[in-house]
Design a protein that fits this description.
Strand content: 15-25%
Number of domains: 2
Shape: globular
Number of strands: 6
CATH architecture of the largest domain: Orthogonal Bundle
Mean pLDDT: 89
CATH class of the largest domain: Mainly Alpha
Helix content: 25-40%
CATH topology of the largest domain: Arc Repressor Mutant, subunit A
Distance between the termini: 61 Å
Order of helices and strands: EEEHEHHEHHEH
CATH superfamily of the largest domain: Winged helix-like DNA-binding domain superfamily/Winged helix DNA-binding domain
């Protein structure tokens, strides 16, 4: 018999950035659960719903200020210091494969890119290029799990949930921040 759990309370805030309003969802443990752009709020809710279903639990959102450490790390990122976002705790409930892809994404250094094919090879699954792309697209925590750093094998700007203009900006911002 399935046990009915009360909805999980998540907290919503927004952050103004140089490339638009970012929506940030956290939990009671001050872990990042979702991060997306205002105009993609519907997609963010769909991803949250998918992840909630995997836990057999609904969620409800309450407005609340971002935990100070997350706010400070995101501000640092947009100011050109990319290291603090690496320490933001994240909680997602993807498949085992998605989790592996998302962990691998966090290992791509700021200012660098990796092709979907190279990422699949790094995971020991060289033929899983499409699956890597699908997992990349299901990432609910952009920037912190830096899916924008994945490009086409030919160097093209393959899709990004926040739009290709943002992807270009993020990559240029990271490259500029690492220049001497």
């Amino acid at each position: 018999m399935l046990q009915h759990l009360p909805p999980e309370t998540l907290f919503r805030d927004q952050l103004e950035t140089p490339i638009g309003t970012m929506l940030v969802i956290t939990d009671k443990q001050e872990r990042l659960r979702a991060l997306d752009w205002r105009e993609y709020e519907d997609r963010m809710h769909r991803l949250l719903q998918l992840h909630a279903k995997k836990k057999n639990r609904e969620y409800e959102l309450q407005a609340a200020p971002l935990p100070a450490a997350i706010h400070k790390a995101l501000d640092a990122y947009f100011a050109g210091n990319f290291v603090p976002v690496n320490d933001i705790p994240v909680y997602t409930t993807g498949t085992v494969f998605q989790q592996a892809v998302w962990r691998a994404l966090r290992n791509i250094p700021a200012g660098t890119t990796l092709s979907y094919s190279a990422l699949a090879k790094n995971l020991g699954r060289p033929k899983a290029v499409r699956a890597v792309g699908t997992a990349n697209g299901a990432n609910p925590v952009g920037i912190v799990i830096p899916c924008h750093r994945v490009i086409g094998m030919d160097g093209s700007m393959a899709g990004y949930g926040g739009g290709l203009a943002r992807k270009r900006w993020l990559l240029a911002h990271e490259a500029a921040g690492l220049s001497p």
